[in-house]
Amino acid sequence: MPIPVLMPALSPTMEEGTLLKWLVSEGDKVEAGDVIAEIETDKATMEVEAVDEGTIGKLLMGEGTEHIAVNKPIALILEEGEDDTAVSNFEADAPPQPAVTQTAPEPVAAATAAPETAAQPPPAIETRAAEARATAPQSNGQGGAPFASPLARRLARENKLDLAAITGSGPHGRIVRRDIEQAIAQGVGVAPAAAAPSVGQVMPAQGQPPAPPAMSDEAILALYEPGTYEVVPIDKMRRIIATRLTQAKLSIPHFRLEVDCEIDALLAARKRLNAMSPAEGPKVFKISVNDMIIKAMAMALQKVPAANATWTEQGILRHKGSDIGVAVAIEGGLFTPLIRHAEIKSLSEISNEMQDLAGRARERRLAPHEYQGGTTAISNLGMMGIKSFDAVINPPHATILAVGAGERRPVVEGDEIRIATIMSCTLACDHRVVDGALGAELLGAFKEFIEEPVTMLV
User: Fold this and answer.
1) Whether 341 is catalytic
2) pTM, entire model
């Protein structure tokens, strides 16, 4: 029987993808590990490998095909001894077995275990984390949504079933149609009459009227004369950004702290370090101010470990490593690639890694584990001349640091006024995890490292 090549799932919530390009033709011989196609998800372009040797019998989807459901066959590989007759007899609706894997490297293990002196997370967190790792190559960083096919989701809605109560029998534990049909027959997974509010849904306080609904598209369009605007389609990345940041604003109680950092010593240290870089070769580096900010934040989280945390309903995750996300603007949106374990990396390592990640982010070539997860994030608009600003926390982070431009300002020292280069930084905190005093301690530690950069090297 031909081996089906399936549209792969990059995360438990991925439901569809776009086939960008075939790298093989019908009749081509392939070996296990050969790259045969490129696919696009909401944020990334990934390569698809064959896991079996054989001959490409048929390409079932054309280049540029959009909205291909996860686990839907996109091609058939003929095994030794099979011919075109096997392709014609293939039933596309038959339950397929996984035939592809991703070329993305294995994710770096997240250092989420609590310190020995801290209380251990409840078993429920360990169990749920293990289940999430078992259902997908990498976590999508959002959690919560059961791993199910679009058809299974629709059938579950129509029959008022709770997907969380149903065990999937598809690839990687995915819930498929036969699981829904079995649940209906056995009376399993019937959803309660009144569902609890979803993550990000704000319930009105007792005695308060509910918030008015958002304006409909029709009501908005009615405000403008036809011909005075153009409609720009919303792509997958922009929808994901809209969904996640709306969730963040509605479900995370933000508060903000601001501090001014004097960076003349940092600028001088950066200049001396860059002068030490080899003129050519693999060890060439060019350290930026942003690289030093990443290092300072990583060190600050190690100095204030209580702030290096993530909120869950079962308990707070205390992270051991400082995995720093860095916002990178691209056309139509942004990525937040991660510098993992930045606290133990040199400035030159951070610089070279950040250049690589930022370059591949702009080409949409990052693997999911390279931008999902992390413990905090940095958004730097200083290079665009912005003095200070507020940033929205990106779940599951508990903080985000907004960095403004370094500019020459008068500084009062004792009874004298002098000129110094000042950079304003604003830390947004999730009040469920980081209280005011803890946020101030973290920002104070960051300021110490920035203003005395030599302390980042010891």
Assistant:
1) no
2) 0.63
